[in-house]
Specification:
The chain is built from seven helices and twelve strands.
Length: 257
């Protein structure tokens, strides 16, 4: 663990991550917010304290679709990349014995409410929303993993507070471990730039009844990363890494016999 005074950015297990509140100096002591310890750091360091659960049914959510293309750059459309990656992840997970559902398996528009309604109906053990990133600054690249921030805390990179408890907050501790495993496996596999584990009120991870994460698997606004995202070998690296993280998450949380 590596903290800096007056900063919300810290390192955990070698990965960049975001605290809800900056480390503060009180008299001569450096203080960490209790909610950051309880909901983020503790479950990563003491994994045995996370409630055991079965993880066999995975719901994948390819972002955007239909007349919502997502990000676009040089003819590359995010919705299409998201679907290709989701199908690859689904195929590998099925080969490993998991049951896999997709919110969409074709190019069609789904409202956010429809995606979370499907999660409530199917009751999966895990929900992963698959996305690609884009910025006006074409030099930016890397991978980000998002989990929901706890109630009464601000989202990463801003001060918009989560005003009340959401369904996803029931799994804050599981989400912390899930986010770390996903970011870790993805960076190990791709050697991409670490843009951190972040916490934000994305609707699809806020309103689902299970542990959940939203993945930003690269920037289509960056020439190098855009090229990689279209290549089969790199898509396979990303897909295998996601599946390895799911399998490790399942192993750690497997109910004791």
């Amino acid at each position: 663990l590596c903290f800096s005074q007056d900063s919300r950015i810290f390192k955990i297990c070698g990965l960049e991550a975001n605290l809800s509140f900056a480390v503060a100096k009180v008299r001569s002591e450096l203080m960490l917010a209790q909610t950051d310890f309880q909901h983020f750091i503790d479950p990563v360091l003491r994994r045995e304290t996370i409630p055991r659960r079965r993880v066999r049914h995975i719901l994948l959510d390819p972002g955007h679709g239909g007349n919502d293309p997502g990000a676009q750059n040089h003819g590359v459309v995010e919705k299409n990349v998201n679907l290709v990656l989701s199908r690859r992840i689904a195929a590998i997970l099925r080969k490993r014995g998991y049951r896999v559902s997709l919110t969409r398996d074709q190019d069609r528009l789904l409202r956010l409410e429809q995606r979370t309604a499907l999660a409530r109906r199917l009751q999966p053990d895990l929900f992963l929303s698959i996305h690609c990133n884009a910025l006006n600054n074409s030099s930016v690249q890397g991978i980000e993993t998002y989990i929901i921030n706890p109630a009464q805390t601000p989202s990463s990179g801003g001060n918009v507070f989560a005003k009340k408890e959401a369904p996803g907050n029931a799994y804050n501790r599981e989400n912390a471990l899930l986010g770390l495993l996903l970011q870790q496996k993805l960076l190990d596999a791709t050697k991409a730039q670490d843009r951190g584990i972040k916490r934000k009120q994305f609707y699809v991870i806020r309103e689902v009844p299970c542990p959940a994460a939203l993945l930003e698997l690269g920037f289509i606004s960056n020439t190098v990363e855009r090229t990689k995202l279209l290549e089969s070998y790199y898509q396979d690296k990303l897909a295998v890494a996601v599946c390895d993280a799911v399998q490790e998450f399942e192993r750690i949380l497997q109910p004791k016999r």
